[in-house]
Amino acid sequence: MVVIRTTENQALNVFGENWKEELNFFSRVMGFSVENNDEVKIELNPDRPDLYSIMALHKAYLRFQNKKFLKGELKKSNRILISSSSQRKYAMAFEVHFKSNGQEIMQDSLAFTDKLSETTGRARRLFAFGLHDADHVHGNLNYCEGVSSFDFITFDEVSGNIWDLIANHEKGISYAGNLKGGKYLSITDNEGAISIPPLFNSKRTRIRGDTKTMLVDITSEDLKSLEVAARLSIGYFVNLGADIYVMETKGENALDIENLLRESHIAIEQSYIKKFLGFIPENVKMDSIFERMGYTKYDANTYTPFIGRVDIMGKADLMEDFVKAIELRNIPEAPLYSTFTGKPDLFNAMTEKLRSILLSLGLQEVINFVLTSKKIEDNEAVLIMNPKSEDYSAIRKSLFNGIMEFFKRNKHNGFPQKIFEIGDIIDQNAQKRVLSIGICSNSSSYSEIKGYLDSILGSVGIFNFTISAESLSGFINGRSGYITINNQRSGFIGEIHPETIKLYELELPAVYMQIDLDSLNGKI
User: Fold this and answer.
1) 3-state secondary structure 69-93
2) 371 and 392 in contact (C-beta within 8 Å)?
3) Nearest alpha-carbon partner for 257 in 277, 280, 238, 234
4) Which residues lie closer than 8 Å to 15 by C-beta, 6 or more apart?
5) Structure confidence at residue 302 (pLDDT)
6) What pLDDT score was predicted for residue 412?
7) Residue 405 to residue 450: CA distance in whole angstroms
8) Helices 270-277 and 315-326, axial angle in degrees (round to 10)
9) Helices in 302-345 by DSSP H: which ranges?
């Protein structure tokens, strides 16, 4: 998942006074989630990078509601870019002529391109953007490698020798690994360097709140990644109503820009739709349905995706958008016919029986993400390579944080809250399915959570277990310990320490237990 963070004021300014209702409605259509606590947190699927900002989401919402908004056009710039680098050799640039501007548009533009570089661009390895005030860029651009030392002032006003900046600046430390062969890359105009891709831009050309014309440069490892970055960014700015003036790329690495940005046309027949849906919706115009999702009609049964829809590969993607556009709730239920007979997995069957027992005890089930932030887990956690979001960069080692975050997010619903989760973790390099129970209330105590443990194990005929009082991180000493079943350590239980409770912004006592379900396998 990719996370967009914004403020209530910005959501209000972009969507209007009904921003909560509109965002929640659109989230059900498009399949993303919205949380509103201290900030507005939007979790998007990584297959829709064209929606990676609050303004991008708003334009997609307006289109879905058939509301008109000003869109820009694609034109040719008078400037040229001469590209001659032998590493990260693909580059292009374009000017963005805004019809309206302001601080919020500039901030959203920076946020959108930064999010793309970090996620789809794999931490700027595949591609990176440079955003400049075009009024402070003079003449044509030159993109090349360099080794000679010179002084440079970065966008955040850090000045120094270019090699010292690459070694010590925050962006240099984070992204200099994308450079090779002891050389830096630079984009220069008639007055000197405006960008050291993929690290930082110059102070001279940095974006300001009153910027009217922006110049965007893109550098990339490969031509396909450059195309993705160009389509996403151009589509974003066109939706903001800006005209795009694309620069011709000449030199050793000249590009065929028209071919790079060519339109695709995809045919989808009504018979194909009926095959998957089982019916053709009545009183529905195909053209208007696809227009709501950003397509234009090319000819009979053939549609052209919007330039920013880099996720569209074929008619299956059109089918998915068609279903979203008519909304799932409008699709009638029908029997699912199968040509084979299956049988339940025994471990899953045991889990379902256990779930029934827990529900009968008055507990509410929750389901949290298997992925979490590496900042939450310890150094032994299994990390995700090239995560699309820092919030989902590691596999959880325990269900504890998910339970506590649930209490934090739902404290406005009142207490007591008694919940359980059955889910997978990776601990000591082994995948395990575990049961966790969390209780938060005025009267939460060790005796209460121990009573649930007795009931669960007693219901499956397990009476030979012990709890050894040991010091557990995050729990109260003397009120917590490890659970041992048949001489095997199978979990832990206890009262959560007040300092841990404060970390999750809770004010009431809480208790927690977790059991490895392998210890119960075959007992239920």
Assistant:
1) CCCCCEEEEEEEEEECCCCCCEEEE
2) yes
3) 234
4) 22, 23, 54, 58, 61
5) 94
6) 86
7) 22
8) 70
9) 315-326
The total of other beta-carbon atoms located within 10 Å of residue 59's CB is 24
Tell me the pLDDT tens digit for each residue of 214-251: 999 999 989 999 999 999 999 999 999 999 999 999 99
Burial class of residue 447 in the structure, from the number of CB atoms within 10 Å of its CB (0-12 exposed, 13-18 middle, 19+ buried): exposed
Please give the model's pTM, rounded to 2 decimal places. 0.71
CA–CA dist 224, 90 (Å, integer): 10
CA 273 from centroid of its chain's CA atoms: 30
How many whole angstroms separate alpha carbon 471 and alpha carbon 477? 5
Euclidean distance between CA atoms 119 and 310, whole angstroms: 14
Cα end-to-end span (Å), the chain = 35
Sheet arrangement for strand 430-440: 364-365, 417-427, 430-440, 510-516, 488-496, 475-485, 465-469
Residue 524 confidence (pLDDT): 55
- The whole-number pLDDT of residue 339 equals 72
Amino acid (1-letter code) at residue 200:
F
In the chain, what percentage of residues exceed pLDDT 90?
Answer: 69
Residue 461 pLDDT > 60, yes or no? yes
Is residue 484 a contact partner of residue 466, using CB atoms and an 8 Å limit? yes
Amino acid (1-letter code) at residue 165: L
Residue pLDDT, tens place only, 332-363: 887 777 777 778 788 888 888 889 999 999 99
d(CA 151, CA 159): 7
Residue count of the chain: 524
Full strand arrangement of the beta sheet holding 33-36:
2-6, 40-44, 33-36
Dump pLDDT digits (tens) for 401-429. 999 999 999 988 889 999 999 999 998 88
State which amino acid sits at residue 35. Answer: E
Q: Tokens 């974003």 appear where? A: 236
- For position 523, what pLDDT does the model report? 59
Determine the pLDDT at residue 183. 92
Torsion from C-alpha of 99, 102, 104, 107, nearest 10 degrees: 90
**459, pLDDT greater than 60:** yes
What is the rounded CA–CA span in Å between residue 30 and residue 48? Answer: 10
Token pair listed for 468: 């050894």
Q: What's the token pair of residue 345?
A: 């997995």
Q: Is the backbone of residue 102 left (phi > 0), alpha (psi -120 to 50) or beta?
A: left
* CA–CA gap between residue 465 and residue 483 (Å, rounded): 7
Query: Hey, what are 416's tokens?
Result: 């007591």
